[in-house]
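Run log, item B.
One chain of 270 residues. Sequence copied directly from the ordering sheet:
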Amino acid sequence: MRIATFNVNSVRARIANILEWLDEAQPDVVLLQEIKTINDDFPEFDFQAKGYHCAIHGQKSYNGVAILSKHPIEDILIGLPGEDGRTSDKWQEGDENQARYIEATIQGIRVASIYLPNGNPVDTVKYPFKLRWMDRLYAHIKDNLLPLEMPIALGGDYNICPDDRDVYDPPRWANDALCKPESRAKFRALINLGLTEAWRSLHPHAEQQYSYWDYVKGRYQKDEGLRIDHFLLSPQATDILEACEIDKTPRAKEKASDHTPVILTLKDIA
């Protein structure tokens, strides 16, 4: 099974590019982030025409996650547990809940599409919000997912550079929410639950391999990027891990997302 994670930075604005990439890459499952649309406006028909079922957790203009699958999508969970409207889990009084998490089972594999908060500027409520969100993700994995003892693939835009190899200019980014020690410590805590970061496990010595390049200052052309899109795997998924690669092709196209897909390949468990 080929499972891709792709922050599309507006599914409607990038639909032509996404459909072209689906034809080229032929993933079985796609975990989308930043779809930036409500469920009713999601281009479900376009994906169904390509043979994909859709599960959507949308939000107007911001955030939003979805799962596309060539196989039936079962046991869908909308929202990360803890996203229940508590003021402490919002940026400020009156903000609506943010659509950042969707989870389901496909062909015996539990998958999740994750859009972890960015957290910048770090001197605002956005950074504590990011850290609290990561605490809830930790609790959900520990208490609800790992006890399933099944293959689990948690893919998405984690908005974390795990270490300095994953950022083009470490000193410049040292105090950014994506690279701060507190952010990296919480990411390591997820790993320490027994998860495997798929791409790094297969490329232990690789440097300057990125999944995101800002639109400004020719960052993509200069290859000044960040590796912030990841797959975390349960032990059962790690046992069937075959490959995990960054597909830079979509980022070079016109009107591209600022992210590019990461594609995970798992061996057949049937």
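Observations after the first pass:
- The chain has a mean pLDDT of 94.
- The chain has one domain: 2-266.
Flagged for discussion on Thursday.
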